[in-house]
Amino acid sequence: MENKEVISNVSKEGLAPGTLLYTGTPNSDKVKITAITYNGEESSVVELRTLSQIANYPLEGQVTWINVDGVHQPEIVEAIGNHFGLHQLVMEDILNTRQRPKAEDYGEYIYFVIRMLDFEKGGKEDELTREQVSIILGKNFVISFQEKTGDVFDKIRARIRERKGREVKMGADYLAYLLLDSVVDHYFRILEVMGQKIDEMEAEMIRNPGNDTLQEIFSIKRELIFLRESVSPLRETVSTFTRLQNSLISQDIAVYLRDFTDHVMRVIETVETYRDTTSSMVDLYLSTTSIKMNEVIKVLTVISTIFIPLTFITGFYGMNLDFMPEVHSQWTYPGVIVAMAVMVVLQLIWFRKKRWI
Amino acid sequence: MENKEVISNVSKEGLAPGTLLYTGTPNSDKVKITAITYNGEESSVVELRTLSQIANYPLEGQVTWINVDGVHQPEIVEAIGNHFGLHQLVMEDILNTRQRPKAEDYGEYIYFVIRMLDFEKGGKEDELTREQVSIILGKNFVISFQEKTGDVFDKIRARIRERKGREVKMGADYLAYLLLDSVVDHYFRILEVMGQKIDEMEAEMIRNPGNDTLQEIFSIKRELIFLRESVSPLRETVSTFTRLQNSLISQDIAVYLRDFTDHVMRVIETVETYRDTTSSMVDLYLSTTSIKMNEVIKVLTVISTIFIPLTFITGFYGMNLDFMPEVHSQWTYPGVIVAMAVMVVLQLIWFRKKRWI
Amino acid sequence: MENKEVISNVSKEGLAPGTLLYTGTPNSDKVKITAITYNGEESSVVELRTLSQIANYPLEGQVTWINVDGVHQPEIVEAIGNHFGLHQLVMEDILNTRQRPKAEDYGEYIYFVIRMLDFEKGGKEDELTREQVSIILGKNFVISFQEKTGDVFDKIRARIRERKGREVKMGADYLAYLLLDSVVDHYFRILEVMGQKIDEMEAEMIRNPGNDTLQEIFSIKRELIFLRESVSPLRETVSTFTRLQNSLISQDIAVYLRDFTDHVMRVIETVETYRDTTSSMVDLYLSTTSIKMNEVIKVLTVISTIFIPLTFITGFYGMNLDFMPEVHSQWTYPGVIVAMAVMVVLQLIWFRKKRWI
Amino acid sequence: MENKEVISNVSKEGLAPGTLLYTGTPNSDKVKITAITYNGEESSVVELRTLSQIANYPLEGQVTWINVDGVHQPEIVEAIGNHFGLHQLVMEDILNTRQRPKAEDYGEYIYFVIRMLDFEKGGKEDELTREQVSIILGKNFVISFQEKTGDVFDKIRARIRERKGREVKMGADYLAYLLLDSVVDHYFRILEVMGQKIDEMEAEMIRNPGNDTLQEIFSIKRELIFLRESVSPLRETVSTFTRLQNSLISQDIAVYLRDFTDHVMRVIETVETYRDTTSSMVDLYLSTTSIKMNEVIKVLTVISTIFIPLTFITGFYGMNLDFMPEVHSQWTYPGVIVAMAVMVVLQLIWFRKKRWI
Amino acid sequence: MENKEVISNVSKEGLAPGTLLYTGTPNSDKVKITAITYNGEESSVVELRTLSQIANYPLEGQVTWINVDGVHQPEIVEAIGNHFGLHQLVMEDILNTRQRPKAEDYGEYIYFVIRMLDFEKGGKEDELTREQVSIILGKNFVISFQEKTGDVFDKIRARIRERKGREVKMGADYLAYLLLDSVVDHYFRILEVMGQKIDEMEAEMIRNPGNDTLQEIFSIKRELIFLRESVSPLRETVSTFTRLQNSLISQDIAVYLRDFTDHVMRVIETVETYRDTTSSMVDLYLSTTSIKMNEVIKVLTVISTIFIPLTFITGFYGMNLDFMPEVHSQWTYPGVIVAMAVMVVLQLIWFRKKRWI
Questions:
Q1: Choosing among A314, A329, A331, A343, which should be mutated to test the E contact, i.e. which has the most E CBs within 10 A?
Q2: Regarding predicted confidence, which is higher, A165 or C68?
Q3: Do B327 and A320 form a contact (C-beta atoms < 8 A)?
Q4: Which of A159, B123, C278, E308 is the most exposed place for a label (fewest CB within 10 A)?
């Protein structure tokens, strides 16, 4: 969640738009390309060994899903892009992994960018990381690009392979919807984890609040800023998607898109609610701190105000002056004690009246 | 109001959209199905013992209202849904009880989701709970699903049974409006309770503010965040409802919808006003605290500033040095007393000038 | 301005929409009905003794204005409503005196709700109260309902009786505009009073700020929240009014409506400006408090820091130990004095460098 | 900038809209009417001595500009208004000098209201004052009304008289634009002065911040609230102006209107930027204050925490008890000194660890 | 980033719109004019020595790009403007270097204003400066005006000269897009630098926060205000640009414009995220400060509360009164010690219960 990451095509500045260059985190994993084809009757999952195999796809009469894990090799993206007739800018955006979530209609295909968020395992603490997922929806094919292997698409893949579920009977548009929806569904997992953290923070704040609690709340706040930045452009994406009633998107999936819209809205609203809640928690925390400080200061003041004058009196009769006539009187001692007692009582009454004690 | 609850289809992640699975709080109550039919001349209320009885409905020439208390048995929702030709996604949304309030037009019927809010009786303190109410408005029938038995619909049921009121003469669209309106009307009860709490808090804050007062205000603030989250999507719902001028909704109820819109707007505005009011209360509380602290510190400062120098003087003449010539003078004692008195007077003048006392 | 009041149809919950029931503050005044008729040539003002007299109105060829003071007798509202063919919901809204300001087109007539605000005379302090004014504009009649006698309509009535002014020559639509405008004009009086209070607070805050000042600013803030809640829906009302270019509203009064819109906008903007101003005042007040506290603490610190070490030294030589060799030296006394003086000077230099004194 | 001024037609409350009454500050200056006529070939500037001279205008084939300095004589406004066929409401608005900036299309003419702002010379400090400028754009004439003599129109007048510049070749619409633009241009002067003040405040806040600095920042904040209130309705005005593509406004000046829009937007944005900047300054100021207080309190605490225990020890051996055996030991004195030194060192280490010193 | 700079045509106030006058920072550099022409086959870069050479351009059948470095000589802008038929207002806006970013369609050409931001090298610290870039897109030419030599256009120039890249094959519209995009791309560099600063601030705030940290955060906040002011009008510019589907902009570059829009949106969102982040940091900083102050005050209070009463007791028995009977008892000394120990222990228990230690 370093701010540097947020920046995008910095290193491309000055280059003509259209130069293919990977701008994400360096990555040495092998790029893995999987071709999944299916229709109502059959399905197959093939891992492509060589880039040239891509020429066999898309299969006629089937839905073809090309999934690419790793975009750090521009030549692979270029080869696939050229084969499927993608625009230069689309290929750039796939490689330049800091795009805003968006849906762009290129006529022959629609290009989606969405961010997959996850808590990174390991490390001192779970940190929110993001990965750009590019999805291209064509006439009878879907191409998806991810930055890393291992993803939320596994279950979809499994169901297609086993030819279970509604998806095998429907077109490429349904598959694209499914992929987008599974990314958004994963946001709910993120939000659940955050919600638990917030609940824990809240409990801790009542039991035993400390500086750490505060820092953790602020760290959640920053994660929410990060999350909101990733999620809020989805509103636009969704409305673009819904408006795109062209030949690529059939009437049948309109209800699914509406459902998807709903999920996106729910994510956005939950993020907003969490932001309100954490802000409210910080306010409560600071208010409580301020009230406690007030109480502490009152104790200090009461003690000081009672004893400082008394101590002055004792100091007064502690002076070693030769000529202090009352020192020799036997009534001075009880007199001093009575005077002190009266002072204390008066002060206590005054404090009580002021509601300090 | 745990944040975990806010999350919705987490456990469904990866499943194909379309899998029927109940995701709400576990519930072992028996699901209760009531069929109410009426027209201008007759009315009947039947509790269905077996699921197969559903096949008798809807009755021709009457308005049929199927009310289902409990959605934790997917098979029941599925049976009813299939009988009335509901879309798979509608059945899912009925079961998945954390939907956003919405109105969706499926052509043959309209699907409404709304949240019923209530203060949970018992427990250490009244806590706001929510329950999802799904309402399906078809040509001559209304189906309503609730999570729990016992609801705000009782009075509507009673009036239909006794064939009193306008509703028996009007169509299913009016009944749907009536159900939605009774849920929104119940929000006013919630707001009334909150308004009273706020008034009490305010009175307490003037009489005897404490840390508890603050915590209670913040708890109301959180409830308002919760309430707003439930209520604000209704604005959209209402506008969808109003736009849906299809064959299911007759011109006659347009004025009722406008009235409903008005109620929703009033709820939303009241929530906003309460939020402003509580924020203002917290600000006032903290300001008052800060001002009191200032006063306390002033007292401390005045007392310390007066006595610390005096005590120094007494300490000075309390030193047991052999060679302190003025100690032996008989003018030292009155001199010290006069010096002290002058110091005190000067300080008091200075404090008065600074408006500290 | 109790929050309870804000709530509206609570006690009606569960009743069918359409049940006539007065929900405002109990009121035992007699309802007063006045019928005013006029055209360019003649005008008459009649107080109706019996409800049946209403049957004589509206007069053909004249503008008829029925003004009803008091809506706590549902039967009167019902009788008038039925005579003029008002919808059931309109009658309900007239009785249910916590409606949002609105303009609703019922084809044959337009129904307006607006809130009349006033400072209640008497009591410990002027408190803002509100009264619902319902105005029905029909073909050649206007009906107005108020909660209490005594209103801002007196001058309009007077002018009609004396057949002065433009109004007698114009239609019912102009009269409706006139009534609405006189309510909005009265808001300016409210704002003027508030503006004066704010100016006074500001002057007091410079002269002699205290806890009371703060509480009064917050009370103005709450009144502004209240005012805004009453005024902001007017924006909508006005735009509805302007859009309603049906047979009831002639082209001639379009310019007056525009003027009315302008007044409403001015009220809203002034409320916003006042909110900004009071917020700014609270901020300034707290900032000043904080700065003063800083100053007080500095004084405390300077005094303590100077004298505490000195007092320690005097205490040191005040110890009654038998074996303290330097006590017997004649240089100790001047030495101690010089040491103390040096310490004080060094501390003063240090404080000066730190800009504390 | 008294709030009372903000209020507008208070004293008119209850009067029929349409009563001509001056509601601004009393003014005894003579109203000065100037008639300026020009076309491409000739130009003349005439000061009208009697109101009847107005009958000569507008001149055929020339652009006529009637400028009226002073609107405190309703009869003058009425005479001019009647001669040029102005609507009653326009005359009212000219007289009632607290209108919102607006542009209203009356078919035959367009009525503009704009506020001229200026720092009032003299007085203890420059205070922002406002003056309402009403501009009426008719077929071949422009009428402008100001509250006071002396204005930003002087240079325009001069250029017309000398027949320099583009304006003499263009129509009345260009002249109206020119007048409006010169008022808006003057806002930049206001903003420049404020910008300088803000820069000064900022410098002062770094050098030597004090309570005065804060008060001055808040006074600038209030001026910005005032400015924004005057400027923000201009956005609307401008969009109305641009939309009014009727016979009064020629295509040729569309680019000038766009330019004008731009100036208005720039003023609004600059006001917003200044608001952000001053808010940021206040925050920084308070933060700095809070940090300094922290530092002061640390010093107090360190000094007190070190010396209070030491003073206790000296006090302990200053007791005059007969039976205190260690007092007679010769090791007590060095023992006490060592103990004190150790305590001080330990405390210093502890403070260092806590980063307090 | 002086506020004075923000102001624009102040010195032009009163002048007729249309007077050519340079209003930027005085500049004595020589104005440098470069003419670049190219098509698919050839390209040339010529630096114009005399202004009259401009008459040779634009070349037929080629794209002509006139780049002018320096706008402080109005006569040059006027000559070029007149040659290419630019409107008077365009020339003014080029000279008046404080325009809002905008896109204006003049039919024959489109006029763009955009702000180039950069950190000024040298000086005590990098300060954000801005430079106005005016771009005119005509049928087959582009004219660009900058305030200073040295710019982000160098790489584009280089690529055209070497006839690499897509641009040489495309029209003037693509070149205009390229120039705008390179300016926006440079914003990412600015944001990257800021992002790094924010990350550093954050690390420093955890390690060793100080007053300087705070001042630096506020300085970043001000830069963000500055940046936002420059960037946010681009949203509008972009939407104007996209809407301008006239003969000057070919269908082919629609996708590039969409890409450009995306970059602008990303810049705006990043600025917003940074603003949120810095605000959050300030909040955290102040909260931490407040918590630390609380801790400091607790230490002071605990120490004072423990020792002040003890010191009083020692003072009490330090009084030199003749008649203090218990002084002579041998149990007083151990009694006093025990009493003190008990007091300390009780206080410690009390502090522990209050969680102060």
A1: A314
A2: C68
A3: yes
A4: B123
User: Of E83, E57, E80, E88, which Cα lies nearest the Cα of E172?
Assistant: E57
Closest chain A residue to the Cα of B19, Cα to Cα = A165
CB A290 within 8 A of CB B290: yes
Chain E residues whose beta carbon lies within 8 Å of the beta carbon of residue A292: 294
Nearest chain B residue to A298, by CA: B296
> At residue B337, does pLDDT exceed 90?
yes
| The pLDDT value given to residue E9 | 41
Per-residue pLDDT tens digits for B49-80: 888 888 888 888 889 999 998 888 888 999 99
Residue E355 region, left (φ>0) first, then alpha (ψ -120 to 50), else beta? left
CB-CB neighbors (< 8 A) of D263 in chain E: 9
Q: How far D330 CA sits from the closest chain C CA (Å)?
A: 5
- Cis peptide, bond prior to residue C309, ω within 30 of zero: no
pLDDT at C151 over 80: no
pLDDT of residue C336: 93
Please, what is the end-to-end C-alpha distance for chain A in angstroms? Answer: 49
E352: tokens are: 């522990």
| CB pair distance less than 8 Å for B291 and C214 | yes
> Which chain E residues are Cβ-neighbours of D182 within 8 angstroms?
13-14
Listed residue (C139, D141, E323) closest to A337, CA to CA: E323
pLDDT: which is higher, E348 or D128: E348
What is the tens place of the pLDDT at every residue in B119-133?
A: 876 554 577 888 899
Residue E293, pLDDT > 90, answer no
> Neighbours of E (≥3 Cβ pairs closer than 8 A)?
A, D
* Contact residues, chain D, for E336 at CB < 8 Å: 319, 321
Residues of D in contact with C321 (CB under 8 A): 317, 327, 332-333, 336
E-assigned strands of D253-347?
none
Whether cis (ω within 30° of 0) applies to the bond prior to C58 is yes
Residue D198 CB partners (closer than 8 Å, separation 6+): D220, D274, D277, D278, D281, E3
Range E155-166 average pLDDT: 78
CA distance C352 to C355: 5
SS3 assignment, position D205: helix
Touching C (3+ Cβ pairs <8 A), the chains are B, D
> Is B96 in a helix, a strand, or coil?
coil
Q: Where are the beta strands (DSSP E) in chain A?
A: 32-38, 43-48, 63-69, 102-105, 110-120, 127-137, 141-146
pLDDT of residue D125: 57
Asked if residue A26 has a cis previous peptide bond (ω within 30° of 0), the answer is no
Residues E131-153 pLDDT 10s: 899 999 998 899 999 988 766 78
Residue-wise pLDDT for C24-57, tens only, equals 777 777 888 999 998 878 888 888 888 888 888 8
Q: What is the pLDDT of residues A95-146, one digit of tens each?
A: 988 888 988 888 889 999 999 888 876 554 577 888 899 999 998 899 999 9
Structural domains of chain D in order of their starting residue, each with its CATH number = 3-287 (3.30.460.20), 296-353 (1.20.58.340)
Backbone angles phi, psi at B49, to 5 degrees: -85, -45
DSSP state for residue D244 in the 8-state scheme? -
Confidence at residue E287, expressed as pLDDT on a 0 to 100 scale: 85
Nearest CB to C188: which of D13, D226, D327?
Answer: D13
Name the residue among A185, A291, A301 with its Cβ closest to that of B300.
Answer: A301
- Residue D35: the pLDDT is 92
A154/B318 touch (CB, cutoff 8 Å), yes or no: no
Residues E110-120: tens digit of each pLDDT:
999 999 888 87
* Whole-number Å distance between alpha carbons of D81 and A321: 96
